[in-house]
Specification:
Translation Initiation Factor IF3, alpha+beta, 23% strand, 100 residues
């Protein structure tokens, strides 16, 4: 399956719902997917960044955008790494069978 790039805008959402919405969207990501989150405040972006990093996701540093329009927004990108398959005993080469 091809990696997807999705967007989540938290502008206009109640502050108490912003982090839970971001967490849910991040947890629903597939391996190699990327989620661009637009938040209304730096503190919200940093909270999302802190949580996602603690969960093992790759997260960009929050960047400010929209200053020229008079509306400041913060954007971060979260990426879910592809799962690394651990070798199992069944994956290991079996020793050659001996005949007596």
């Amino acid at each position: 399956m091809m990696p997807m790039k999705r967007y989540l805008q938290l502008l206009g959402e109640m502050r108490s719902y912003q982090l839970p919405q971001a967490r849910l969207a991040i947890q629903e990501m597939e391996a190699d997917d990327e989620l661009v989150i637009v938040a209304p405040e730096q503190s919200v972006a940093e909270s999302i960044q802190q949580w996602a990093t603690s969960q093992g996701y790759t997260v960009s540093k929050p960047t400010k955008s929209g200053e020229g329009m008079g509306i400041i927004r913060w954007q971060i990108t979260v990426r879910k790494a592809a799962a690394v398959k651990e070798p199992t005993t069944s994956d290991a080469a079996a020793p050659p069978a001996t005949t007596s």
